[in-house]
# Entry
Amino acid sequence: MTEDRPYEFSPLALLKPIVRCLYRARKPTIDGSLRDWREEHRLPPLGELAGEPDFAQYYLAWNGGGLYLALEVPKQARVVVNRRNPAAADALEIFLDTRATQTSHRATQFCYHFVVLPAGGGSDRTQAEVRQVPIRRALQRARLADPGDLEVASELRQDGYSLELALRSEALHGYEPEPGARMALAFILHDIQRGRRFWGTAPEFPHARDPSTWSLIELQK
# Structure
């Protein structure tokens, strides 16, 4: 137990939050700007449960076309990415289980791991990019998504950056776009200044391979 972390273990070990993911009729324009996102789509700051305040803001929405994620990260320095080792710089890891069975400690064909970089892509190396990464020790590996079914964009500013990501339904095996459906979700935000921040899981958990350690989201209209 430390001053910065008042718990010996994360309270997420004792409870399983169920976070609502609200419907939006139209797909957001994936341009890196969060102007067309409303406050109702903002996810609660689950990091605060473990005494680690979230400095970033996450937004999530769904419809029949897929899942949509937005991220706002304040920074006092320029964005730095490391394409060979994303966790060593600025990056976002996304863990998603489209069926959220929560009974197996090993990933199935419904479990995905995406790594998103706010820069480093494109011919000028300033564009965002997303890649799918195999989950270690998976019982069955998810099929690789077609790059055309993953859409990402960022907006880089002096005071930080924002990201938008669209995961089309064709990219997500097992995705059931209907109210009441549940999925499991977790984020790890890597920040070159402030280190790692977790949403929906905790560093004490084997989050990189165990989907039962990810928090639940429920699709709602």
